[in-house]
Design goal:
By secondary structure, the protein is an all-alpha fold. The chain has a single domain, classed as 434 Repressor (Amino-terminal Domain) (Orthogonal Bundle), CATH 1.10.260. It is 53% helix and 0% strand. It has 5 helices and no strands. Helix 2 packs across helix 3. It starts with a helix and ends in a 16-residue tail after the last helix. Keywords: DNA-binding.
C-alpha cells in the first residue's frame, strides 16, 4: 500500500475529496493512487503540502531494490 493511500485513510479522507483538491476526476485520482497513472509534479507538490511532507517523503522510499547494487572496486 502506498503512502498517499495510508495517509488518506489514516486521516479519514475520501478519494473524491483529494481528487477535488487536485482538480482531477475521482477516476483519475484512483488510477494515480494505485500507480496506474503518475502524479504530475504540480500534483505531487500539492499533495506534499497537503500532508505536510516533502515530495521525497511522500513519494520515495529508502529501501534498496534487488536490482540496485553497491559498486565495489576490484583488483
Amino acid at each position: 500500500m502506498n503512502k498517499i493511500k495510508l495517509l488518506r485513510e489514516k486521516n479519514n479522507i475520501r478519494q473524491n475529496e483529494i481528487a477535488q483538491f487536485l482538480n482531477i476526476s475521482a477516476c483519475n485520482y484512483y488510477k494515480k493512487e494505485t500507480g496506474d497513472l503518475r502524479f504530475s509534479l504540480i500534483e505531487a507538490k500539492k499533495l506534499s503540502d497537503y500532508f505536510g511532507l516533502t515530495i521525497e517523503e511522500l513519494f520515495f522510499t529508502n529501501k534498496v531494490s534487488e536490482n540496485e547494487t553497491t559498486f565495489q572496486e576490484t583488483g
